[in-house]
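U., I forgot to send this yesterday:
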Amino acid sequence: MKSERNHAKVGYSMIVVSASLTIIALLGLAIGEDVLYADNLQRESTAHFNECRDNDFQPDGCEKYWDRINNPASGIYIDLED
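Result:
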C-alpha cells in the first residue's frame, strides 16, 4: 500500500496550481479593459527613447539610456557631459 504522504504532496501541489491560476485570472481582470496594455507600454517607451535621442539624451529622465549608448551594439554615439 502506498504512503499517505504522497497524497498530501499531490494535494498541496493542486492548491499551488489553483492559486497561481487564480492570480493569473485576477491579473486578466485587472487589465481586461485595456487589451493592448503591453503594446501601449512599448509604444510609450519607444516614443520616450526617440524624444531623448532627438535631444541628445540630455533632458531629465534620459539618464537611464546612458549605459546603453556609446557602444557598437547600439550604434548611437553621443558626447555625454556628467
